[in-house]
């Protein structure tokens, strides 16, 4: 039934796949995401996460999504902090609909687009004021790594924090030094921190320094899961 609805938006003879999403209206993609998520939530079947990942365009793998969503599902009135706005943001908001979700974004155009599309979201623009090329310098200055955030965010003990921003490649990119350090300071005792792209040196070193190897719960390819 769902696949038939998708086909209505596609050119004649076009097969459903990665390129399908460019033909689908945003409102319809949102509807699909919510529907497939609820089916995953009810059944636990990964095929629904696979479908939404392909159609919506989410970089996290199916197993990575499953790991994060399972933790959200297990926590009552979860307080969820997400570094980054993207195609997966509606998934986090939907999954944590009974809790509190705050999203942080550095890119002005990206931030404006999402705020106009979802004005009801608790999303804030942040400024990192760092350059990736200086990551070794910042590593020795942890007192300079705390982000200037809304008091509401700083005073909350977060149950789950997902670090998937800001941009972490290219010398002039801000890098994730501050987001990883800030996550280490804001996580609730016994909470869960997920850091994406840990195949990269900076993410790996900052995680080892501030989240500590002994706190690793699991590694799913380039996603690390830490216990706070």
What's this model, at a glance?
The chain contains ten helices and seven strands.
Detail the topology: elements first, then pairings.
Elements: H1 2-7, H2 26-43, H3 46-56, H4 62-74, E1 79-83, H5 89-95, E2 100-105, H6 108-117, E3 122-125, H7 135-139, H8 151-154, E4 158-163, H9 177-186, E5 187-195, H10 201-210, E6 216-220, E7 223-227
Parallel strand pairs: 1-2, 1-4, 2-3, 4-5
Antiparallel strand pairs: 5-7, 6-7
Question: What features would you describe in this structure?
Answer:
The chain has 228 residues and is α/β, with parallel strands linked by helices. It has two domains: 1-57, no CATH class; 75-227, Rossmann fold, CATH 3.40.50. Helices cover 41% and strands 18% of the residues. The chain is built from ten helices and seven strands. The chain has helices at residues 2-7, 26-43, 46-56, 62-74, 89-95, 108-117, 135-139, 151-154, 177-186, 201-210; strands at 79-83, 100-105, 122-125, 158-163, 187-195, 216-220, 223-227. Strands 3-2-1-4-5-7-6 form a seven-stranded mixed sheet, sandwiched between helices. Strand 1 (79-83), helix 5 (89-95) and strand 2 form a beta-alpha-beta unit. The longest helix is centred in the N-terminal third of the chain and has 18 residues, at 26-43. It is globular and about 60 Å long. The termini are far apart. The model has no long low-confidence stretch (mean pLDDT 94).
């Amino acid at each position: 039934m769902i696949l038939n609805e998708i086909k209505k938006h596609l050119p004649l003879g076009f097969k459903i796949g990665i390129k399908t999403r460019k033909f689908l209206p945003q409102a319809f993609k949102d509807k699909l995401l919510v529907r497939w998520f609820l089916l995953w939530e009810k059944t636990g079947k990964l095929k629904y996460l696979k479908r939404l990942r392909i159609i919506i365009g989410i970089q996290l793998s199916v197993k990575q999504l499953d790991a994060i969503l399972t933790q959200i599902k297990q926590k009552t009135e979860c307080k969820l902090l997400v570094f980054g706005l993207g195609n997966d943001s509606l998934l986090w908001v939907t999954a944590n609909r009974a809790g509190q979700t705050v999203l942080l974004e550095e890119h002005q155009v990206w931030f404006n687009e999402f705020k106009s599309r979802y004005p009801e979201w608790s999303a804030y623009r942040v400024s990192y004021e760092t350059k990736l090329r200086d990551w070794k310098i910042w590593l020795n200055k942890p007192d300079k790594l705390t982000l200037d955030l809304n008091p509401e965010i700083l005073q909350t003990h977060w149950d789950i924090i997902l670090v998937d921003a800001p941009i972490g490649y290219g010398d002039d990119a801000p890098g994730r030094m501050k987001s990883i350090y800030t996550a280490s300071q804001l996580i609730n005792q016994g909470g869960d921190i997920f850091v994406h792209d840990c195949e990269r040196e900076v993410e790996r070193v900052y995680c080892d320094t501030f989240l500590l190897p002994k706190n690793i719960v699991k590694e799913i390819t380039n996603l690390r899961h830490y216990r706070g």
